[in-house]
Inverse folding.
């Protein structure tokens, strides 16, 4: 028996609650992990509150990532005592996830915990930080270096945005942070943003194409924000889109793509292949300033998770939330 956040759906409705459950609830998998740390991401908050149909199988333990220690393995790649992390693969959506003291998963979904990080630090980075690194890699591979010009980061106060700013600044880029919480300007500048702009400058319907400004963009918002970011990206620039906090629609024109040769990269962290994940975590170990993690991170207990999920969706949470599943 172990503690977990369990989501159920029946005639009484949709409900998330902290419960003590049996391992028999867990789905099939060839590796069992004693979870030490998990996180609360935007997708987890949607799952817990039921505000979006993230969960597609019930009952479900949410939590799209975790770090912990292998306690039992039938997979040749892992043995008891190995320190591991997991991001994505449908965990917390179709397969019980990390907001629990125990997880049972497929061994091929796991990565070894990078030696540069503790389990808590790896989850302070979490799926959000790993996604931010995938976005940075996309811009780099497009040929956008620090001398090309400004990089726009939207949804800057969130988890992906916060880590993206820290990474880009460490790599020498000039970063402009777009946020709906301009009171967080000092926080964003401490992470490395050179300028903070109100999201209202991008969130309203705009022109099909505007004045060139951005060498590259990391967008976590979608909708009009993404459309306006594309419309103001420089010739042969690139936009890495990884989120939809502002909506799933994309009310844009083809003009930036056919007149300025702008490239729009879709960034998927959930099903990314092993080599892509390994590269991202290797670069995080090299390029992320660990001293900035604490400023980005808020720690909560498993019992606080449901309440904080609502705060997150209301825009009251900045940076990353790590969950100590042991309390």
């Amino acid at each position: 028996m172990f503690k977990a956040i369990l989501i159920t759906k029946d005639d009484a409705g949709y409900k998330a609650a902290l419960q003590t459950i049996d391992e028999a609830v867990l789905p099939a998998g060839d590796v069992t992990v004693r979870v030490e740390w998990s996180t609360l991401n935007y997708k987890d908050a949607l799952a817990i509150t039921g505000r979006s149909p993230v969960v597609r199988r019930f009952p479900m333990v949410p939590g799209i990532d975790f770090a912990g220690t292998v306690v039992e393995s039938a997979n040749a790649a892992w043995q008891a005592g190995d320190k591991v992390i997991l991001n994505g693969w449908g965990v917390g959506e179709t397969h019980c996830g990390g907001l629990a003291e125990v997880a049972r998963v497929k061994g091929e979904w796991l990565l070894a915990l990078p030696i540069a990080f503790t389990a808590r630090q790896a989850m302070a980075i979490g799926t959000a930080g790993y996604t931010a690194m995938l976005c940075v890699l996309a811009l780099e591979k497009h040929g956008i270096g620090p001398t090309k010009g400004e990089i726009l980061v939207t949804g800057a106060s969130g988890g992906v945005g916060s880590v993206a700013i820290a990474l880009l600044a460490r790599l020498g880029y000039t970063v402009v942070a777009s946020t709906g919480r301009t009171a967080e300007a000092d926080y964003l500048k401490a992470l490395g943003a050179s300028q903070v702009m109100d999201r209202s400058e991008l969130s309203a319907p705009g022109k099909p194409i505007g004045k060139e400004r951005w060498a590259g963009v990391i967008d976590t918002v979608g909708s009009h924000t993404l459309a306006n970011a594309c419309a103001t990206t420089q010739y042969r620039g690139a936009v890495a889109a990884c989120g939809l906090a502002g909506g799933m629609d994309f009310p844009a024109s083809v003009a930036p793509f056919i007149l300025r040769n702008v490239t729009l990269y879709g960034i998927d962290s959930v099903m990314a292949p092993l080599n892509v994940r390994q590269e991202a975590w290797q670069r995080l170990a090299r390029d992320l300033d660990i001293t900035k993690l604490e400023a980005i991170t808020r720690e909560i207990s498993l019992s606080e998770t449901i309440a904080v999920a609502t705060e997150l969706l209301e825009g009251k949470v900045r940076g990353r939330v790590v969950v100590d599943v042991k309390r």
